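R.M. (postdoc): so does anyone remember the format we settled on? I'll just put the structure tokens first.
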């Protein structure tokens, strides 16, 4: 069985997504209402801010919804840093290089549409040996690509020193 966790990227979408899920007949457990643990539900809704590491830590696989519409995708490195492999759609122009590198390394896989994405995520989550390898690969990918902020700060400092 798959436990779905949906995390809207924008707080103004929390209520609309909850209503959409409930209108589809799904039982929803909202993060904002958890006290000690999530209530049993068809879908857990991540309606909180600043907890993406928690969500990726709970997940076996991340299906980046924003990459299935021409929105540019989300930062897949956040998922990889939590050893969470990623399934991407075709629209990753905001993170093009990271998406290409992650796919080449095996930390992510790209599919053409949401139906293939759901199938790929479910297949990976249910195949324990492949999932373990994908988790290790995601963690190694994130480790290999750490330090961008430090490199940027060092480059800016050099430019300032020059004048």
């Amino acid at each position: 069985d798959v436990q779905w966790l949906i995390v809207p990227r924008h707080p103004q979408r929390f209520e609309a997504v909850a209503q959409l899920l409930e209108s589809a007949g799904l039982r929803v457990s909202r993060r904002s209402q958890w006290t000690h643990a999530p209530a049993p539900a068809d879908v857990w809704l991540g309606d909180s801010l600043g907890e993406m590491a928690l969500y990726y830590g709970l997940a076996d696989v991340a299906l980046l919804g924003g990459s299935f519409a021409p929105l540019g995708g989300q930062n897949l490195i956040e998922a990889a840093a939590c050893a969470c492999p990623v399934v991407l759609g075709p629209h990753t122009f905001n993170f093009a290089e990271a998406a290409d590198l992650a796919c080449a390394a095996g930390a992510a896989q790209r599919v053409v549409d949401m139906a293939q994405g759901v199938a790929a995520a479910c297949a990976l989550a249910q195949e324990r040996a492949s999932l373990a390898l994908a988790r290790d690969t995601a963690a190694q990918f994130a480790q290999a690509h750490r330090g961008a902020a430090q490199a940027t700060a060092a480059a800016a400092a050099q430019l300032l020193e020059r004048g």
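R.M.: ...and that's the designed sequence above, right after the tokens. Also worth knowing: The mean pLDDT is 93. The two ends are 60 Å apart (CA to CA).
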